[in-house]
Amino acid sequence: MKRISVAQPCLAGNERKYVLDCIDSSWISSAGKYIGAFEEAFAQYCGTKHAVSANNGTTALHLALVALDLQPGDEVIIPTVTYIATANAVRYCGATPVLADVLPYTMNLDPADIEHRITPRTRGIIAVHLYGHPADMDAINAVAERHGLWVLEDAAEAHGAEVNGKKVGALGRCATFSFFGNKIVTTGEGGMITTDDDTLAARLRLFRGQGMDPVRRYWFPVIGYNYRMTNIQAAIGLAQMETIDQALSERDRLARWYDEALAPFDTQIVRPQSEPWARQVFWMYNIFLRAGNAVRRDAIISLLDAAGIETRPVFYPMHILPPYAQPAVFPVADLWAQRGINLPTHQALTQADVQRIADALGQALAA
Ligand SMILES: Cc1ncc(COP(=O)(O)O)c(C=O)c1O
After folding, report:
1. Could you tell me the distance, in angstroms and rounded to a whole number, from the CA of residue 180 to the centre of ligand 1?
2. Which of 153, 193, 232, 346 is the most buried (most CB within 10 A)?
3. How remote is the CA of residue 292 from the centroid of ligand 1, in Å?
4. pTM of the model
């Protein structure tokens, strides 16, 4: 029986045509028409003045923090449940990620757990839109405003998500995205930073290109990085932006199929919940095992794997990973992260695949 992967890219539009154009025209490096076109399309989609491309989501995060002038000794508040790149980027600047607890269901940063972690060294907050459900940006921005902090959205997993009808990417001082192969919009490897702030955008472009002065060529006023995206990556990205609405609606349909097929197991699992103000996008369709099954999470993942279905555990919280380990207790993260499973979520899945996954899950829960 066919193996079902947890994620896979959909390259059914103009991706091939635009990549061949790069090769035929020999514009394969980090200059060329697709870079500007992709940045423009992305900014327009998010409703921001600027979009600055980068070579992956981690360098986009690092670049954003450099442009925000994050310094050694500074602190940044981040949710303990996230992908490790969020914390690492803070460390790359010599600053300290200060962990905060998350909310149940969405596992996004808990706005009520931020304020008491703010110190004179705190510079900002990174709000991660985990697995496609946006963080509570209104509440997070309100805390940040009270304390004069910036808010960076880590929107790596949430292209197209919205808060009260406004797209992620336009909800903080700046936002970063990933276009890794498993993301809703992919360029193979790639990243983007969006912002309305002209000065910040200029700094992002300066530091992205080794710090070369935009007017005086080969003059370097600062130490920068080579975090540039290639024209080939941007060519794929532009084609992906042409079909993003379709990608999101196909993922919505997939979520409805899952909801229907998994409803019989509602006494054993919790299905995705959405806040009333949120437009959730399904980067990953997550389930959480209810109390009785919680300790069997890894066994259930193995049983699904044996049935030819790849899944993933929800991210381990940062506070239990060796680089960021600390004795602190984060009650919600501790309770929820260990019960979570990412089910296969991509556009090639059929309703029959979803039924097969549901049947295998039912058997694993009963085992
Ligand atoms: C929340 C989050 N932040 C940052 C990243 C880093 O992106 P990339 O893998 O493109 O470096 C990812 C991606 O996987 C992510 O999920």
Report:
1. 7
2. 193
3. 32
4. 0.97
